Amino acid sequence: MYAHPLSLLELDGTILVVDTEGNHWVQFKFKPVQISSQKPHGLDYSITLHGPDGQRLAGFDNAHRVKGQKGDAQDHFHRLQTIKRYEFQNAAKLIEDFWNLVDSVLRERGVFQ
């Protein structure tokens, strides 16, 4: 399934609570930008999972370069204290990968079984 990156703009500003206690939530931020070598999909984005005290537990964004990598801002993901490069394929795959990461982190934290 292919989804154009700009289809993500509809999610901009959305915040969703992802557990029954209301302790964990996700936030979507998408802004169109000029297509460039750093942002070939034409988006500035940040999609994040937050814990009870608001700290970011995981997420995907392209706001900065990955430490140890050359170049400018790059697609990457954060998981707890690690940052790894992410190969952006399309909007649907980004959202799928994000929800898989959210599920994994919440299971590790004992939120889901």
Percent in helix:
10-25%
Q: Tell me the total number of β-strands.
A: 6
What is the helix tally? 1
Quickly count the domains.
Answer: 1
* Largest pleated sheet: 6 strands, antiparallel
Q: Largest beta sheet: what is the strand line-up?
A: 1-2-3-4-5-6
Helix/sheet category:
alpha+beta
Which band does the percent of strand residues land in? 25-35%
The Cα radius of gyration reads: 14 Å
Dominant shape = globular
Topology order in helix (H) and strand (E) letters: EEEEEEH
- The first-to-last residue Cα distance is 29 Å
Low-confidence stretches: none
Could you tell me the mean pLDDT?
Answer: 87
Summarize this structure briefly.
The protein is built from 1 helix and 6 strands.
